Amino acid sequence: NVLYMAGQLGLYPPTMTLTKGGAVAELELALQNSEAVAKSFNCSISTSSVLLVVYCSESIPSSERGKIQDKLEAFLKQIRSSSTKEGKLSKVLDHLSLYVLVPDLPKRALVEVKPLLYNVDDAETITEGKSLTRTGNQSFQHEGWHDTCINRCIVNGTICALVMSVTNETAVRLCSEFLSANRKSEDIQNLISERQMDRISRFCVYLLDKILAENSFFWEEIVSLRVYYPVSLHIPLDALSLLFKNALEELAEMHRQPIFNIIPVLGAGSSTTMDDLITCELFAQRT
Asked: Where in the sequence is the signal peptide annotated (predicted)?
């Protein structure tokens, strides 16, 4: 029931040329194209989306990026409203959105949309899994603010999608002994060393593991784990990859380490500010 849709651009199908009118116009057409593909599989991006990844070209002015997020939510709301009027509205998943800033896109597009859909059968009931008890990382004690770092979409104990954001504020909380004096700095990324990133990477794995356990998922059921980091972060890719590898190896319950990808980007996050220090995108499926 999972549909991994290829990235959709704002192309007119007859001519395969980009629409004119800028990023918002391209996004709208890309969403229309995504909806057309979804309908061919008897679902809709407005109700069946687990995760919507929106790639934004750095060519988009900063002042225009907020309009992209507004347009996405307005488009989905409009489809749901139309389906309700037609009596066709099915169960609605509480989808996640992830925005990624990149240097360029195919055909010099400004926006690309990549939906991940789960077609919920009308007979299914959307439920959450039962919690597991496991050791986890003892370096961290749960605090209320941890929940603000992560968004989740759990479906029927079968699908688990997580988007975790480590912001400048999160980094200051985690590395207070070093960064607290620079709390107001807008240049935290330049202050992060491998030592601080080691603690941040362990926190990411701790919190991802906690949410997986709460919903009865195991690391062996992970389909993909992507870690986005800004190229402005002065830590080599190999070093960052090793830090996450070591953090994952500390989980005693893990029988095999999941494959993960460290992806350098210009920016990423759950909003179009795309200013996270680290963004983790996880998808797990129980078969």
From this structure: none
